[in-house]
Amino acid sequence: MAQKGILVVVSGFSGVGKGTLMKCLVERYSNYALSISATTRSPREGEVDGREYFFRTRDEFQTMINGGELIEYACYCENFYGTPQKYVEEQMEQGKDVILEIEIQGALNIKKKYPEALLLFVMPPSAAVLKERLEGRGTESPEVIDARLRRACEESEGIENYDFILVNDDLDVCVKQMHGLITDQRWRVNRNLDFINEIRTEIKAFSKGEV
Ligand code: 5GP
After folding, report:
1. Does residue 124 line the site of ligand 1, with CB under 6 A?
2. How confident is the model at residue 1 (pLDDT cuts 50, 70, 90)?
3. Using 50, 70 and 90 to split pLDDT, how confident is the model at 181?
């Protein structure tokens, strides 16, 4: 049986380029499944329901919470965002490494529920670059940009809860590093206990001269 997939949480400040990173990762390597979140925020230009997000009303989102459909949810800059459970569990069972691109509150809740999850935090090469990227995106009003920068301040206090940081300076390098970190998780001792025990038993048998 294939090993169960790895659950990977990717967070990072708004504007750090997480979306592009994720897109590049799934295009380049085949073993990833990108979870699609539900949100109450309005679609940005070009975003499609069921592709970037499941866009839902507050009532619909509340129904998902009440029905236990979300493994985590959080409020971010006055909108709700949450991860549907079914897809994540199914993909992991099939051996896919599932990526959740979520903010810090959600990341911490995932770590509580799935202690073996890998938590990655994407950093900009500098604060100035982050501000430039956020302003240059041109999809948000100055008020929203300010709110997101304030939120980045808060989030920066929580980075120590993550397992690794990734610096998104050169996209190509960052994608390779991310893939490397995720693939290395397959060699964790606690993911390989069956194999370890098999070898252990065989060595014991050899040492006793049974084989
Ligand atoms: P945006 O509005 O820029 O698409 O996303 C805003 C923030 O919400 C980002 O930090 C993004 O990672 C986070 N986010 C997206 N989906 C989820 C989710 O399902 N749960 C949580 N907790 N955060 C999410």
Report:
1. no
2. low
3. very high
Nearest CA to ligand 1 atom 14: 102
Q: Is 37 in the pocket of ligand 1 (CB under 6 A)?
A: yes
Alpha carbon distance 163, 152 (integer Å): 19
Beta-strand relationship, 70-76 and 79-84: antiparallel
| Bridge partners of residue 73, in order along the sequence | 82
How far apart are the C-alpha atoms of 76 and 203, rounded to whole Å? Answer: 54
CB of 106 within 6 A of ligand 1: the answer is: yes
Can you give the pTM of this predicted structure?
Answer: 0.92
Strands (E), 64-200: 70-76, 79-84, 97-101, 118-123, 164-167
Domains of the chain, start order:
7-207 (3.40.50.300)
Q: Is 155 in the pocket of ligand 1 (CB under 6 A)?
A: no
